[in-house]
UniProtKB/TrEMBL annotation:
<comment type="similarity">
    <text>Belongs to the FAD-dependent glycerol-3-phosphate dehydrogenase family.</text>
</comment>
<keyword id="KW-0274">FAD</keyword>
<dbReference type="InterPro" id="IPR036188">
    <property type="entry name" value="FAD/NAD-bd_sf"/>
</dbReference>
<keyword id="KW-0285">Flavoprotein</keyword>
<dbReference type="GO" id="GO:0046168">
    <property type="term" value="P:glycerol-3-phosphate catabolic process"/>
</dbReference>
<feature type="domain" description="FAD dependent oxidoreductase">
    <location>
        <begin position="5"/>
        <end position="356"/>
    </location>
</feature>
<protein>
    <submittedName>
        <fullName>Aerobic glycerol-3-phosphate dehydrogenase</fullName>
        <ecNumber>1.1.5.3</ecNumber>
    </submittedName>
</protein>
<dbReference type="Pfam" id="PF01266">
    <property type="entry name" value="DAO"/>
</dbReference>
<keyword id="KW-0560">Oxidoreductase</keyword>
<dbReference type="InterPro" id="IPR006076">
    <property type="entry name" value="FAD-dep_OxRdtase"/>
</dbReference>
<dbReference type="InterPro" id="IPR000447">
    <property type="entry name" value="G3P_DH_FAD-dep"/>
</dbReference>
<dbReference type="GO" id="GO:0004368">
    <property type="term" value="F:glycerol-3-phosphate dehydrogenase (quinone) activity"/>
</dbReference>
Length: 519
């Protein structure tokens, strides 16, 4: 077996890179200071898209790459990635052309709030989008009548034109990451190499040796030492902080922006979306999505520069009011209010450090592989990256490592299906009869299988990223108590710690997500 490559960060990019290396027979140790998919992966808009608005900033190559990967994911991960029709309402016919031209040419805007993008500009962008979608099987864009029965009835007093096009949605990227972890384990067996996943571990450095220290007291685990063949820093918005932890001297690399979303079970709004989504423009020119999300709706996002610890990013009252106002500008008949919010979430995009004076929207969404020379091992940091391009980023990273570590990339992974299931109830072969988890339709046998097979270490792992109970409308204390009892039985939680674990989970749900657990 070969010495492992160390990957820091268990988000969608770190796990995709691990999978790509294992496809090519390389041993991998994947480490995260928290749980897998617990950063920006879980706090995105959950779209697999080409980036229509990237065209306005002349990022044509990124749009091409994203559209190619959208087609690939629709084919290789259809259980996760599904087509979604999006509707774009416009207030005028010709507005916004001057501002869009300035953005395309990189000329600073003269006014802080541009005119709304008109129907002509939207049609030009959608025509380019269709042309770049070379491998797409999705329908082309269309002009639509506001009065058509199959379109969202946006406010006719505000909007006079409507266009539609297709992108794709991934409802639970958290479970997509779980599926990729399972594929990593299968690939390691197939190639007789090592794959280790160490969640809740901190990484420290002693010269050329790295120490991987467990952060949870139970079950007991020893500190690991490792001399890796190479190191990949895929910690997202934590890249600079991770570099400091392992004493790598570097200029500032990250300058992320904060994006907030809200979830609502408002029945009328879900009905008005007519099975599709709305891609609208707020009064400040910022694009906002209203998306179907199972039985509820997902609304986002904001884009605010954020320099603090990403773990402290929380949706503010101002952001929630901003998103509520967008809903009411589109569908005033709903009377949508803060009381209709079931929960919210907020993440920090792993964007490159920006030059002063640039707007948040103009910061590139492309990914960058940043080399750290003069280290005991080949090392790079991943700047940027998004859900849509996780596989192509992994391909590029594997090729970078192959040149420096000395192996051959024999398989680009472009045709390998992604395993796993969006619905946690399909995550195991456990029987779907018998006792159910309190307040849900999830069999306890399935819960036990997920605890055993999906690297669960804390109660929050189950609630937020395995069973997806964060989005359950009636999450109760009884449900949390039953989950902790199954964790105790599985030997991953001490009975004496159950009360503290539940209390910490409840506190996090209310603080970070505005999610109230029923007593």
């Amino acid at each position: 077996m070969n010495d492992p490559i160390l990957i820091l960060g268990g988000g969608i990019n770190g796990v995709a890179i691990a999978r790509q290396l294992l496809i090519n027979g390389q041993s991998v140790v994947l480490v995260d200071s928290a749980d897998i998919a617990s950063g920006a992966t879980a706090y995105s808009s959950r779209l697999i898209h080409g980036g229509l608005r990237y065209l306005e900033y002349a990022e044509v190559s990124l749009v091409r790459e994203s559209l190619d990967e959208r087609s690939r994911l629709l084919k290789l991960a259809p259980q996760f990635v599904k087509p979604l029709e999006l509707f774009i309402p416009s207030q005028s016919r010709l507005g916004g052309a001057v501002a869009a031209t300035r953005n395309f040419l990189g000329i600073p805007a003269k006014r802080s709030t541009p005119k709304p993008r008109g129907a002509w500009l939207v049609q030009v962008g959608l025509t380019m989008y269709d042309l770049f979608a070379r491998a797409s099987t999705l329908p082309k864009h269309r002009r639509r009548k506001l009065t058509a029965p199959d379109v969202p009835p946006v406010d006719p007093k505000r909007y006079g034109w409507l266009s539609s096009y297709y992108d794709a949605q991934i409802r639970f990227p958290e479970r997509f990451v779980v599926g990729m972890i399972a594929d990593c384990e299968a690939l390691a067996k197939q190639h007789d190499v090592t794959f280790e996943l160490l969640t809740y571990h901190m990484t420290h450095r002693d010269d050329a040796t790295l120490r991987l220290e467990p952060q949870l007291a139970y079950p007991p685990a020893a500190t690991r030492t490792l001399q890796p063949r190479a190191v990949v820093n895929a910690t997202g918005s934590y890249v600079d902080r991770a570099l400091k932890k392992i004493d790598v001297d570097s200029k500032r690399l990250m300058g992320g922006t904060k994006g907030s979303h809200l979830i609502t079970f408002h029945p009328q709004l879900r009905q008005l979306l007519a099975g599709g989504g709305v891609y609208a423009e707020a009064d400040d020119g910022r694009p906002v999505f209203l998306l179907p999300f199972g039985d509820c709706c997902l609304i986002g996002t904001t884009d605010i520069f954020f320099d603090e610890n990403p773990a402290k990013a929380i949706a503010s009252d101002e952001e929630l009011d901003y998103l509520v106002a967008v809903v009411n500008s589109l569908f005033p008949q709903t009377g949508f209010s803060r009381q209709d919010i079931e929960c919210f979430y907020c993440g920090v995009r792993p964007l490159p450090y920006r030059e002063s004076g640039k707007s948040a929207a103009s910061v590139t969404r492309n990914h960058i592989l940043h080399d750290h020379p003069d280290q005991p091992w080949p090392m790079l940091s991943i700047i940027g990256g998004k859900l849509t391009t996780c596989r192509s980023l992994a391909e590029e990273t594997a090729e970078w490592l192959a040149e420096r570590v000395g192996f051959e990339v024999q398989d680009l992974g472009r045709d390998r299906p992604f395993p796993g299931h969006e619905d946690c109830r399909q995550a195991s072969s456990a029987a779907d009869d018998g006792e159910m988890l309190v307040g849900t339709q999830i069999p306890l046998a399935v819960v036990d299988a997920i605890i055993a097979d999906e690297h669960v270490r804390r109660l929050g792992d189950l609630v937020e990223r395995r069973l997806m109970l964060l989005y359950h409308p009636r999450l109760s204390r009884a449900t949390l108590d039953q989950l902790t009892s199954r964790m105790v039985a599985a030997g991953i939680l001490e009975a004496a710690s159950v009360g503290q674990e539940v209390a910490e989970c409840e506190q996090r749900l209310i603080t970070m997500f505005g999610k109230q657990v029923a007593s």
